Amino acid sequence: MAGAGRGLMLLLVLLLALPVVVMLAALEATPAVEYEGELTATEAERARQLLKAHDPRRLQAGEIRTITLTGQELNSLLRHGGARLLRGAVRLALEDGHILAVATATLPPNPLGRSLGRYLNLTARLDMTAGTPRLTAVHLGKVPVPAALANLLLKGGHHLLERHDAYRQALGAINGIRVVPGRLHVVYQWRPELVDQARAMGRDLLPAGEGRRLLAYHDRLVAATRGRTGRSMALGELLGPMFQLARNRSLGGNDPAVENRSALVVLALYIQGVDLPRLLGAGPLTRPTAVVPLLAGRQDLAQHFLISAGIAVAGGGGLADAVGLLKEVDDARHGSGFSFTDLAADRAGVRFAQQVTGPAAGEFQDRVASGLDGDQLLPDLTGLEEFLGEEAFRRRYEAVDSPAYRRVAEDIETRIGSLPLYR
Q1: Which of 134, 294, 329, 377 maximizes the CB count within 10 A of its CB?
Q2: Between the CA of residue 112 and those of 18, 27, 104, 155, 398, what are the distances in Å?
Q3: CA 265, CA 252: separation in Å to the nearest integer?
Q4: pTM tops 0.70
Q5: Which domain holds residue 184?
Q6: Of all helices (H) and strands (E), which one includes residue 137?
């Protein structure tokens, strides 16, 4: 009897240890997929076109639409999310009825990493021809995973996600998926309730305490703008009280970088007119007074600065650069014209965001909380051209990757870098 008990215990230990052993055996010294950087302006433009074409505000309930993504477009979107969700990268290849997925997760530095490697590489082949996705080949590193086990895990994950309304609604809206070489076609039927479900899911995905933290900065913004209806306000005056709160909360033991990020996100949403309490499902709360923030005496520069800073802390500096550049290219075609001054405000906003969330977040927090003037945030803009129409921009600079353009872009970086705030 005792022998049977020891045997059962040994079997249990082996079963518990097996996943660890497989994981260690799967670790490799090199990544199967390398992170290729943030979205380019061209990729951001394509994403904007897709969002515009499938804008929920333009769709009728029950309307059937097809969204088509090339492999390059799909990988561009996955590249941005993969770096944050996996600390690695993802790449898909679209074949005839199949999707080949390769993903790399980068593990934190550890003693075993020196001998076994730090990269967990996953390769999976997904058969889409039968209507229901089915894994036909899976490898963790060089370790093959039985297809039956992989599909059992896939099915289990599906059943687990089905507990969430947002997942069920989204899945129910999809009428069909077709994979052809180089393209993915998704046919869906629009359901208005998906917007509310997505918003609720976004709230659920917020880190613990994030909603309360954002609302704390919302309340500080309400106090900072009270009684100033329709009045202008230097951007430094707006940043000061927000970062005073960030400093106070950091002195209470919170991470300065996290506090600074929340302050910037709230300001970026405010300048775009977003009702934060409604977005968070917090019910009707007092909204901040509408004021006109100014940077270098201009409202547009303050908007560029704050929006780019907000995108940088929420989605990455490269994404903020791409969005800012895309905005200027679009203005050259249809709006007020390409503006290097706006681009300078975009880049200064990104640099500001990098500083307040970087290794010296606490020190930088103190400097902002004590009050800043506009010339501390933004360099001298003398000589930077603006209001360039598309034809004038092409005549002088050809394109956004030309030597002439790069010289101006490098000059802007040098000007920003010369400010004590960004050294």
Answers
A1: 377
A2: 17, 10, 18, 32, 51
A3: 21
A4: no
A5: 25-197
A6: strand 134-140
